[in-house]
Write a structure and sequence with these properties.
Helix content is 25%, strand content 14%. By secondary structure, it is α+β, with helices and mostly antiparallel strands. The mean pLDDT is 89.
């Protein structure tokens, strides 16, 4: 392992079912905030996993339609890119090739979803 006294332990995974409750407990018990960066710095935007024909619907996160790709918030906003969380149930407005970053102009989003309404509110408040 080396001489020490400091070591780095690499974990190529997250234990969300363990880490999330521990984070909440730290906040509630100790008033300790974790991972607070002020404003968001990255956005998880959607990229096609396969070619989509005009009128084709997208499935959700973890599906066969699209994958999430990280980008800087400023770049995602200026390029009009769709966050992957909004893509479920969206319909392609045009043919979209494989490995294409999806813009708001490319799809009709399901505006009745709660996540869509919350995202629009977040954008209106300047929180993204």
């Amino acid at each position: 392992m080396g001489k020490g006294p400091y070591f780095a332990i690499f974990r190529p995974f997250h234990l969300a079912s363990v880490e999330a409750p521990l984070t909440v407990a730290k906040m509630l018990c100790d008033g300790y905030e974790t991972l607070v960066s002020g404003k968001p710095t990255t956005e998880v935007i959607a990229s096609t996993k396969k070619a989509h024909a005009k009128g084709e619907r997208f499935d959700g996160i973890g599906g066969f339609s699209a994958r999430g790709v990280t980008d800087r918030v400023e770049d995602a906003k200026s390029d009009n890119l769709v966050p992957i969380g909004l893509l479920q149930g969206a319909t392609a407005r045009r043919d979209i090739p494989i490995d294409t970053l999806i813009t708001y102009d490319d799809v009709d989003l399901d505006q009745n979803q709660t996540i869509y309404m919350l995202r629009m509110k977040q954008d209106q408040l300047g929180l993204s």
